Amino acid sequence: MKKINLDNAAASPLEPAVLEAMLPFFTEHFGNPSSGHELGNVPRKALEEARASVARLINAEPREIIFTASASEANNLAIKGLIAANRVKGNHIISSVVEHFSVLNQLKTLEKEGFAVTLLPVDQYGLVNPEQLDQAITDKTILVSIQAANPEIGTIQPLDDLVKVAESKGVPFHTDAAAAVGWTHLDAKKTGVALLSLAGDQFGGPKGSAALYVSKKTRIRPLIEGGIQERGLRAGTENVPILVGLGMAAKLAAETLAERVKKSSILRDQLKESLINNVPYLHLNGHPEQRLPHNLNFSVEFVEGEALLLRLNMAGIYVSSGSSCTSQALKSSHVLSAIGLPPELAQGSLLFTLGRQNSADEIPYITDQLNSVADLLRKMSPLYHQYLKEVQNNA
Amino acid sequence: MPDYSDKVMDHFSNPRNIGEINEPDGLGEVGNPVCGDMMKFTIKVKDNRIEDVKYLTFGCGAAIAVSSMVSEMAKGKTLEEALKISNKQVAEELGGLPGNKMHCSNLGADALHKAIEDYMEKQGVKAESALSIFGPFPADLGEVIS
């Protein structure tokens, strides 16, 4: 049976060159970068090369890159770290309702600790309005944190405009760019963000490889204190092989970004067209144009997402869903509810994220399978039967 | 993927008794799209036995498997026996359900009981008197969601 991974944001295989770059650092070059003897030399140099590669990918300086073990950690370091260093300046934080839980859950905690949090709403496509950001900023605002792109519905925020608003009022801006880096042209310097989180596993690097960009003029406090690794902002012996993998993935992404974006956009649009033209009752979620080149999110009317996911799994097609049944917390996606999607459509959502290994010749099989799976589940759906009756009655 | 038993996957992959009985003797609905699972059971009753049972289900793998299992368990049973089918028994017959699915998706017996109650009400027997006929309902009937 064919195996088609359409859940690349969850996990995708390493690029061969990335694995190759990593391997010697498990064995031959096992040394600790902090060592005074020569065993540390090659690892130390490799670590700094990786840092430079990551910096180049987002147009930053190497010393502005702090390695972390996940984008969730980077988001925590950004928000908690900035607040710890700027507590005297105010107690107000602005973010948005569609952020990742590694942002939203910290904000909930901070709220309990006495911080005031404003979560900006989004429109039907998931966009934050810069004017609303402008209105929300007060003289107590110490941080704005808004994602660069949404990992679920793929909507790309007007980051330049949002940062400009915050900058004009002297408020530092953090962006969770985990979904965007490696898939969009992001220029940290030009955009003017103070902090930016990225994740290597989103663009061909290994899991557990991530970083926080901290602009030169931004002061933060560490979450993990100890040694002076990562300029004292993240103590602990560096995970050299993983970070070398991140560096290589960043290097490859930087070299081929334009080509990747183009190739993936074309494939995404072909898949989108094929599905929309052949599978009835599909709704596209997220922005029709302003979206990540590898992201598609559909709601399949009248059916539930986990059942779709399991049926597609049986056909060797791997996808993700925002339905409550697929979440451990049994809550449907906060992003889909934020864009105003009715519950029955949120329950039937499917997330496709393309990767380097997907190709156009998979599209007919994906289309056929989704069509038959949706048809089968629709025929046993009380919502569909109710709809048919309504149509009949209106005729 | 949730940790579903082979039995759950079997009923999910080949659900039995799907559909809606025309002019049913009893109809029972539970759930709503907000919680993610909806079940609609219809029954045909003859000589105090469930002659036929069909369902429509909107929901996850567990919800579909539960519906299918309940339909198999109920078919041919007397109303009294069918009222004794509990959600817990259904889960057991399925070889267990993942913990987080026990409450949200395991509503099949509730929907069946509602269909039986509906039948009784149509027969002029109120639910309270059904109690006196059949004794107390299984405890989990009290958890039928609105």
Give a verbal description of the structure.
The complex is a heterodimer of chains A (395) and B (146). In chain A, strand 3 (92-96), helix 4 and strand 4 (116-120) form a beta-alpha-beta unit. Helices cover 41% and strands 13% of the residues of chain A. Chain A has helices at residues 16-22, 41-57, 71-86, 101-112, 130-136, 159-168, 188-191, 240-278, 305-314, 334-338, 343-347, 363-379, 382-394; strands spanning 4-5, 65-68, 92-96, 116-120, 141-145, 173-176, 195-199, 210-214, 282-284, 295-300, 317-318, 349-353. Chain A is globular. By secondary structure, chain A is of the alpha/beta class. With 146 residues, chain B is an alpha+beta fold. Chain B has a single domain (6-133), classed as Sufe protein. Chain: A, CATH 3.90.1010. Chain B starts with 5 loop residues before the first helix and ends in a 12-residue tail after the last helix. Chain A binds chain B through residues 302-307, 310, 313-314, 323-326, 328, 330, 332, 342-344, 347, 379-383, 385, and chain B through 1-2, 12-13, 15, 18-20, 29, 32-40, 56-64, 100-101, 104-105.
Features:
heterodimer; A: 395 residues; alpha/beta; Aspartate Aminotransferase, domain 1; Aspartate Aminotransferase, domain 2; 2 domains; 7-stranded mixed sheet; 3-stranded antiparallel sheet; 13 helices; 12 strands; 13% strand; B: 146 residues; alpha+beta; Sufe protein. Chain: A; 6 helices; globular; disordered C terminus
